[in-house]
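Incident log, support desk, overnight shift.

02:14 A customer reports that sequence design results differ from what the structure should imply. Their input is reproduced verbatim below. On-call engineer (initials T.W.) acknowledged and began investigating.
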């Protein structure tokens, strides 16, 4: 059964992000609390270049790869933007599951996706994604989610995603990335700051949010992400979008288990 909905739903329109607009005596680590949930859509649209394009590409992925009768997961669903894309562009026989460990984000998601929940197209779960049963999935989405997980559990989670996906299934990931070995990285960081300024954020807001995220959001290199997918068994990972230091990429589980040809088998036996 779909989760219960708030008795008095608020407007779907997000509030304007002013979480870090006033000077704070001490900056606490960033958390997805009620205050953030209320302004999340505005916050991420004004902080992440290419955010809308990421969802346009996800709609194409969903339309092509969602398998009828399968489950589609949005892990770290936040306010439900990706969840809605999965529901809107997949066969009606698919069920979309949004998962987030923040109850305020789930509450917000229940408001924005009310109709889809009532029509049993979407179900929401407030839990750690490491505890989520992902079996029967043809698409699993992690949009700006891995970067908030401890580095130590990312490999294990991706291996479990690979095992859970149906043959031909897709993992779609969007992340902030870094490449500290390249000189242009500083230029990209500076351009990202300029992007935030153009979106109306003050220097105080930028500085305070950066401090709050410093020990919470841990980006990796694009190579590290691709390598992780390849090591799990996904076919050649593809970067689909790039906007400054943010990318979206995908990996596909092979439709069948690779089998050695007789020629390859002969080579292997000779090597042994």
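02:41 Re-run completed on a clean worker. Output:
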């Amino acid at each position: 059964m779909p989760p219960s909905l708030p008795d008095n739903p608020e407007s779907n329109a997000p509030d304007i992000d002013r979480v870090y607009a006033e000077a704070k005596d001490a900056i606490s680590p960033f958390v997805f609390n009620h205050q953030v949930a209320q302004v999340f859509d505005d916050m991420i649209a004004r902080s992440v270049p290419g955010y809308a394009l990421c969802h346009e590409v996800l709609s194409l992925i969903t339309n092509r790869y969602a398998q009828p009768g399968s489950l589609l997961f949005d892990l770290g669903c936040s306010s439900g933007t990706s969840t809605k894309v999965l529901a809107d562009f997949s066969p009606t026989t698919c069920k979309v599951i949004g998962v987030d460990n923040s109850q305020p984000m789930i509450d917000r998601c229940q408001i924005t996706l009310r109709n889809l929940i009532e029509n049993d197209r979407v179900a929401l779960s407030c839990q750690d994604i490491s505890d989520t049963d992902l079996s029967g999935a043809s698409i699993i989405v992690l949009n700006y989610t891995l970067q908030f997980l401890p580095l130590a559990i990312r490999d294990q989670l991706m291996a479990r995603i690979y095992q859970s996906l149906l043959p031909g299934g897709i993992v779609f990931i969007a992340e902030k990335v870094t490449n500290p070995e390249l000189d242009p990285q500083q230029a990209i960081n500076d351009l990202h700051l300029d992007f935030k300024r153009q979106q109306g954020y003050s220097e105080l807001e930028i500085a305070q949010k950066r401090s709050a995220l410093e020990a919470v959001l841990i980006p990796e290199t694009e190579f590290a992400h691709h390598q992780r997918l390849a090591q799990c068994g996904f076919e050649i990972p593809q970067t689909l979008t790039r906007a400054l230091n943010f990318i979206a990429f995908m990996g596909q589980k092979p439709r069948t288990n690779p089998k050695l040809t007789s020629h390859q088998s002969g080579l292997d036996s000779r090597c042994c």
